[in-house]
Design a protein that fits this description.
Number of helices: 26
Structural class: alpha/beta
Shape: elongated
Strand order of the largest sheet: 10-9-11-12-14-13-19
Oligomer: single chain
Number of strands: 21
Radius of gyration: 28 Å
Distance between the termini: 78 Å
Length: about 675
């Protein structure tokens, strides 16, 4: 194990000559006084909720930023105020954000644990432990694609080294040789538990070595040592040999959060931390005079006090714009491209054609995932793309869903348009955080200063022989989340058009395909008009009843309507296509036209399925038009068996839909 406390020392003399110890000390004191003032504001009631202070860790951001270049990007943990300040964020706006004021960096939307300042390349904190590391890998991909020469630094605590997303991000970054510096700020405490109680080994950096990543242990209490280590790591990353993991041994001078009384912490540990205070150490190391120290502390205290006085007077955010920036406020209108011919092609090929068109139109489009590149995907959807567009734009990834999704978030923030594949929808649950807590929040928290235009493709549903872990329909879970959009194409034409629309959309989009449809063929107009996300399609008109459906049940619903026509019933079929945004106007129209006799059909479980949401909206908004209660058709509560005969006994079909329509019309 290389310990770069000694390795970095070889470069310390040069760093000390290049840097001003006095300025470093002033910056450390500024962060210290800032955090102490935040603590006081919390005691006064000016800060709602929890605040996680970086008291004792000031040397790391100060030293690190002194060694980075202006275009380099930084991502932090929820203990990241010091990183934001070191990047050059406006301290007034930063303190105002922590106090949830309108003039805060994020207008009060982020508070302490998610604040950002993209104008100074601080891309934000993350309140989910380890979740920001895959983002850093994605941002680094965008920097490589633009050939900017910039690198990305992401900080994490020692506890985050035990998170799966952390390991996945490092594996992903290593596989792609990404210019990322992973900065582990090891203060010895994982929240309220000592890292020694949960983790074997003295040096966490050993894990990086096990992943083939250059890794070092550094004195995190000396900003000059930090600067030297960061400078060397940055050089490695800029040369194309990244990433690098640096474990900075540091200390924690306060509790896990602002109201932590540290009842769990031994007195001797608190005393040891105070002795290791980086400000005290740096004074001695640089032989700073007492007069200088007193003057700096007095000047900084006065400056911070003045900031706090201003923050106390700042107004809270008004509620007028609380719903703004959930999605882009202005969507691009449909674009007319050169008219292409109509071809009879299968569903999977239609998606392939859409991906080709997007890769040709937009240089920023990337396509990646497990087996997506060379093999062309397990279902052949991406076949031939890598050969045509190269390994830099279409590539295979480690089997690491959190890294796949999280890197897509980061790459999108960095200006790319990633299209990533989760091989089976069931697999997304091991990385759902990256959709629910990450992609969905980017635009809203940053008030559109940052956004994440990415597409997540996945396939779901039951096919003969599929087991309970390869057969679930999960659209209701995803459609529940504000900040993302969810579509389910049911024809080859929609597979093509909706994929194009998703890639052009400025917000995160999840496209759920049903694998039973991949070989279904139909007419597809290639090129032509690109639609925007949203909008249902009435597959069949009718006045006696209406079936509202999506995905795999569209064909079953049409079959049911055909059978009912033979009985003299004129039944409409509305394919929602997009569950978020939901086409409320189309639903209202079909309710009125059908005399208020509605059946909702989907393959997912009836209990908690998206049909319940559609039914509730119809009942709330069109109750006076309903002739009978809405009937829902779906899969009953069961774990899906593998045997085809057992599957057939529980899956909804045209027979069930026919029965539902008969019920709603009173037959």
């Amino acid at each position: 194990m290389t310990n770069s406390t000694s390795t970095a020392a070889l470069a310390l003399d040069g760093v000390r000559e290049a840097q001003s110890p006095a300025e470093m000390y002033r910056r450390m004191v500024f962060i210290r006084k800032f955090e102490e003032q935040v603590l006081e504001l919390g005691r006064e009631g000016h800060v709602a909720g929890s605040v996680h202070l970086c008291l004792g860790q000031e040397a790391i951001p100060v030293g690190a930023l002194s060694a980075l270049q202006p275009g380099d990007k930084v991502l932090g943990t929820y203990r990241g105020h010091g990183w934001a300040l070191a990047c050059g964020a406006d301290p007034l706006a930063l303190m105002a954000e922590i106090a949830q004021r309108a003039d805060g960096t994020n207008g009060g939307r982020a508070g302490s644990p998610m604040l950002s300042a993209p104008e100074v390349n601080f891309l934000g904190e993350n309140s989910i432990i380890g979740a920001g590391l895959p983002h850093a890998a994605g941002v680094a991909m965008s920097e490589l694609a633009s050939e900017s020469g910039n690198i990305v630094l992401v900080s994490l605590g020692d506890g985050a080294m035990n998170q799966g997303a952390t390991t996945e991000a490092m594996v992903f970054a290593a596989a792609r040789r990404l210019p990322v510096i992973f900065v582990c700020e090891n203060n010895g405490w994982s929240e309220m538990t000592p890292i020694s109680a949960t983790t074997r080994g003295e040096h966490l950096a050993r894990r990086g070595q096990g992943l083939g990543i250059e890794s070092h242990v550094v004195d995190g209490g000396d900003p000059v040592a930090v600067a030297a280590a960061i400078g060397e790591a940055a050089a490695v990353c800029r040369s194309g040999d990244g990433p690098v993991l640096l474990e900075f041994k540091t200390t924690r001078l306060s509790g896990h959060y602002n109201k932590d009384i540290q009842h769990y912490r031994p007195a001797e540990d608190i005393e040891a931390a105070s002795v290791a205070d980086p400000l005290l150490r740096f004074r001695e190391l640089e032989d700073l005079s007492e007069n200088f120290v007193r003057r700096v502390e007095s000047e900084v205290s006065e400056e911070i006090g003045a900031l706090a006085d201003r923050v106390r007077q700042l107004p809270a955010p008004t509620t007028e714009g609380v719903f703004e920036h959930l999605y882009a406020q202005e969507l691009s209108q449909p674009t007319v491209h050169e008219e292409g011919e109509i071809k009879e092609i299968p569903f999977f090929r239609a998606i392939n054609e859409a991906l080709k068109d997007s890769l040709r139109r937009r240089e920023e489009v990337l396509v990646y995932g497990e087996d997506v590149g060379y093999a062309g995907g397990i279902f052949g959807v991406t076949r031939g793309l890598q050969k045509e567009f190269g390994e830099a734009r279409v590539f295979d990834t480690p089997i690491a869903e959190a890294a796949i999704l999280g890197s897509a978030v980061g790459a999108a923030i960095g200006g790319m348009r990633p299209v990533v594949e989760i091989m089976w929808a069931d697999f997304v649950f091991v990385a759902l955080d990256q959709i629910i807590n990450q992609a969905s929040n980017v635009r809203y928290i940053n008030r559109s200063k940052l956004h994440a235009p990415l597409v997540i493709r996945m396939q779901q549903g039951v096919t003969p022989g599929s087991c309970a872990q390869h057969s679930q329909s999960i659209e209701a879970i995803l459609a529940h989340i504000p900040g993302i959009k969810v579509g389910m194409p049911a024809t080859p034409q929609d597979a093509y058009a909706m994929t194009l629309a998703a890639i052009e959309d400025p917000d995160p989009v999840v496209l759920i395909e049903h694998r039973s449809m991949y070989q279904d063929s139909g007419p597809v107009r290639l090129e032509g008009v690109s639609e925007i996300v949203g909008g249902a399609t009435e597959r069949r008109t009718g006045k006696d009843a209406a079936i509202i459906t999506w995905g795999s049940m569209v064909s079953e619903s049409i079959a049911a309507a055909d059978r009912l026509a033979a009985e003299g019933l004129d039944v409409a079929v509305l394919d929602l296509r997009w569950l978020r945004p939901l086409d409320e106007a189309a639903i209202a129209k079909v309710v009125a036209a059908s005399g208020g006799r509605i059946v909702i059909a989907h393959e997912a479980f009836t209990n908690g399925g998206f049909g319940a949401e559609v039914s509730a909206r119809i009942t709330e908004r069109h109750f006076d038009q309903l002739a009978n209660p809405v009937v829902r058709v779906g899969t009953p509560d069961i774990r899906m068996p593998s045997a085809p005969a057992l599957q057939a006994s529980v899956l909804p079909s045209a027979d069930h839909i026919v029965d539902g329509v008969r019920r709603v019309v009173g037959r």
